[in-house]
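Recap from last week: sequence in, structure out.
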Amino acid sequence: MSISNQKILIVGGGSGMGLALARRCVEAGAEIIIAGRDEDRLRQACETLGNPVGLAVAAVDITREDQVVELFARIGDLDHIVSTAADIEGAYRLLPELDLKAAQRVVESKLYGPLLLAKHGAPRLGGTGSMTFVSGIAAYRPAARGSVVAAVNAALEGLVRALAVELAPIRVNAVSPGWVDTTIWAQVAGDRKAETLAAMAERLPVGRIGQAEDIADAIVFLIGNGFTTGTTLHVEGGHRLV
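Predicted structure tokens:
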């Protein structure tokens, strides 16, 4: 299935994996709406992409059901929905230091947000449409300080399988990235970001850390492959093997 002339909503499209995906989709001739909470960041993303025809922005907090309802009323029918959004600020902590509010923000952004996108977005998709969400390697290789993210990633993959059954023939899938060099690592590793990523690169069978474009390519595959649903596509450089 070609994504040329397809209308695609990318929540989290203002940066990182979402922005890389927006670039891939624009290059393929798709009509794109990039959405997120920070409208200034979205505008900057449009400038980064060269303000192409067919690229629009939509400010929305997907943890707020009223805003999700309003979003779909505003943008109308779609071919595909993608969310790369995640609010993990303050969530990577050992249990004695963990703030429950930070944990709740992860759940809201990575689980309830996709649930609301599915609830209100499914009626906007045709029978060949799809939804793609982003989980992560923490569900399979959890580390100390990562209990909340591990749990939410695993829960999201369970949600994806259930939605693939309930919403059929709409296809619902997840991409599970490994360690990817995005700005989120500033929250995870702080000043040790470069050192931490370099150490993992030496362990991985592919010999490098992932890039946002690696994940974008995987999402484009899931959008375009009409025989894939209820699946988690692992794009992690062999991390589960080491």
